[in-house]
Amino acid sequence: MAEEVPAEYLPRLLFHVCRTGGPVAAVKKLVEVHKVALDITDQGETPLIAAVRGGSTDVVRVLLKHKPRLDVKYKGLTGIEWAKKNPQLYQIFQMEGIQLMTIGDIPRLLELVDAGLDTSDDSDFSLLKWARSMGVKEVEDILCNKRTTGTSATRSSRVLVVQFVGEPVSF
């Protein structure tokens, strides 16, 4: 019979499985059953950044489903910026952005962009290409503005987009 891990060790265990790439079932259990918070840090590193640096695409996917903070930097880089060093990992963030656009979660999409997700590039997963192909003009305008100004999305832009997708939310 397996012994239960004491609760105070669960965050450390989450970092270990994120850094080593799993098992994915352990990550799910720690986050979903034991409710280990994803905004914790270990010397500045979050579980998401640990998973990205560990190279585990599956663990990154699981963590993204639970909406971790994206703006935390470790050694000057967000998890998305670390992922740019590995095309497979970066593609997961791009696909997450496309999925968020598809379901209308524009505030979360803008969090990805603000954390370093490129709005326009040459890949098939370019957010700007997808916004254009989906005919989401307001999102396209925001992404174009982000690309040309390099600034974060504004409060008024977020409200405009959320009203466009039919979910009035105030920020």
Any descriptors?
single chain; 171 residues; mainly alpha; 10 helices; elongated
- Fraction in helix: 55-70%
Name the helix and strand elements from N-terminus to C-terminus, one letter apiece: HHHHHHHHHH
Spans of at least 5 consecutive residues whose pLDDT stays below 50 are 153-171
Radius of gyration: 17 Å
Q: How would you classify the quaternary structure?
A: single chain
Q: Can you give a write-up of this model?
A:
The model is unreliable at 153-171 (pLDDT under 50). The chain starts with 9 loop residues before the first helix and ends in a 7-residue tail after the last helix. It contains ten helices and no strands. The chain is mainly α. It has helices at 10-20, 24-33, 47-54, 57-65, 79-83, 87-103, 106-114, 127-134, 137-149, 155-164. Helix content is 58%, strand content 0%.
